[in-house]
Amino acid sequence: MNTLRPGDAMLTDWREAAARFEREVGKAVVGQERAIRLLTIAIFARGHVMLEGDVGVGKTTLLRAVARGLGGAYERVEGTVDMMPTDLIYHTYLGEDGRPRVEPGPVLRQAEDLSVFFFNEINRARPQVHALLLRIMAERSVSAFNREYRFPHLQVFADRNRVEREETFELPAAARDRFLMEIGMEAPRDAEVRRTLVFDPRFHDTDRLTEEVASGVLDHDRVGSIASAIQHAIRAEPAIEAYVVGLWEALARPGPAGIRLSGIDMDRLVQGGASPRGVAFLVRAARVRAWLEGRDWLVPEDIRAVFPAVMAHRVFLEPVYEMRRTEIVPELIRAVFETVPAP
Amino acid sequence: MPAPPSAALLVAVVASLAAPLPAVAQVRGVELRTPRAFGYFQGDLVQVQAEIRTDPGFSLQRPSLPKPGPVAYWLDLKEVRAEEGRADDGSTVIRLHLTYQDFYVALDARTLEVPGFPVTVESAGSNGSTTAVAQVPAWKIGVSPLREVQPERRDDPAEYLRPDGRAPRLDPQPALASAGIFLGLAVLALLLLAYDRAWWIFGRRRGRPFALALKALRRARRRSEGEALYRDALLALHRGLDETDGRRVLADDLPDFLARHPVFRPQESGLATFFAASRLAFFGRDTAGASQRLPLPEVEGLLRRLGAVERSA
């Protein structure tokens, strides 16, 4: 296969760094190669990531390991029902002299150096908090103390578990669309890995476990410029452009594309979504995947590898089918890839 | 054998007019229309009509009608039907249609009396209801024996029995013919269904995607040349693979494809080269490099080999 041109030595070096980063994270989180690969792609695509999965599959551990490997300042908040947007921005307390004080809260504390903002249990926070997060994610800036704070390197990682529905707030479509990927995490299937996870005491103390990850494998200051270099270096041929547009069309209008799923009215299945921003994100992530695979041109497999994580949460189904979303959307995506011809 | 009531008319008017009591005058008359008065055999139905005329405002009290059932040991009442109407002078006309069946085994011709019965009519006025009784009179029918009392002497008692009636011989030809036609139609429909559902011999019916791909390549040869022809050739092979697998096969899917279709395993190296060349040609902007790696004749050769495997499978 083609490798990158010699002139792109920097990209080659960075690819090695990315591989090292994946290995380091893999030390702390075993059996989640797919999630780690997708997170690496998200980092180099400068996109925000939502992790979704059952309780205790290692979402938080994975994000902590990634934050540690990425280096830079790191903040973490836990979503609660009574959390307000100001709780993220301001920290209010009574000083020793009894006078009230207002100081920068979690978002502002590290100022511009903030590289990873980790929002735990995001669906427990109220819509007001989601709105603030929307602005932080979309514009990487926030207004406070009568000035504007910018976070050029900021990446938002969020997680939510899908077990509880009480006292939770579904993220608005606009906020979900801001996330580059929504990665579903499952407990590892492999029996050997499962045994290790349960019996090896190394995996019982997550603090010590994340400390094993070498800190700052990637230089978080420069990830932004590398990300933009990747986007310029990876070529997309007309054939791949036609392929992506074909996939997009088939996903948005599965009926006319000839996709049939049993028991579903295909003409009324998809209500909307699959936004142009989403498809742009898709190509962005696919380019990073091509780069990680050592190519400077896109192939359909790149698109397919990132498609479910990038596109699944952007498809909005008719309310009748929304309850069965977790089974319908993967079926639909599989059918789309089985229908649209690649070359 | 029942005779229509009009065949013979026996009018029996019970002249209740003779009674001077005003209460009786509420029933103006009862008229019985019977068919012929004689010639009844055992088992015959006898249909009788009774017409009762009453003063205006009276109507039949239906529970007072006789119930169908045995009337005498030789007579059954089979059916009672009543209809009410209005005559020109305003009086109510009640018509009873009675069907009797005679079971009398007569040895000689004789006359029997069919008993009469009372029927109640009522008029619901503002100060209570008034009822009156109309008496349907008894009447007579003449019954006759079916056979002579002392038949001719026979030696064999079985000879007293009449021979069985002869049933007409039916022609089975039209039924056989239509059965044949419908059987043929059913088989035809079953064949169509089996074809549609790919049952039985049709189950093995399978398109030959690689043979079609080879045909498509030959057509492309007439249409285009150079790089375009090369790309068309690759596309033809791609479509053949897609069709064989029932899904789109990408380069990374080759191991899965071979696992699903082990017959093509001997062609693995050829297919791997093909996918690499196709990637280069379509996504690597290097059709020339691709055609060096896998020249056009080899694409055709690969297609032919795949087609041969497909035929033998």
Automatic annotation (TrEMBL), chain A:
Family matches, as InterPro entries: AAA+_ATPase (IPR003593), ATPase_AAA-3 (IPR011703), CbbQ/NirQ/NorQ/GpvN (IPR050764), ChlI/MoxR_AAA_lid (IPR041628), ClpA/B (IPR001270), P-loop_NTPase (IPR027417)
A single MF term (Gene Ontology): ATP binding
Cross-referenced Pfam families: AAA_3, AAA_lid_2
Alphabetical list of Gene3D superfamilies matching this protein: Magnesium chelatase subunit I, C-Terminal domain (1.10.8.80), P-loop containing nucleotide triphosphate hydrolases (3.40.50.300)
Domain AAA+ ATPase per the UniProt entry, residue ranges: 45-189
Protein name (record): MoxR family ATPase
Automatic annotation (TrEMBL), chain B:
Signal peptide annotation: 1-25
Transmembrane parts of this sequence: 175-195
Alphabetical keyword list: Membrane, Signal, Transmembrane, Transmembrane helix
Protein name: Nonribosomal peptide synthetase MxaA
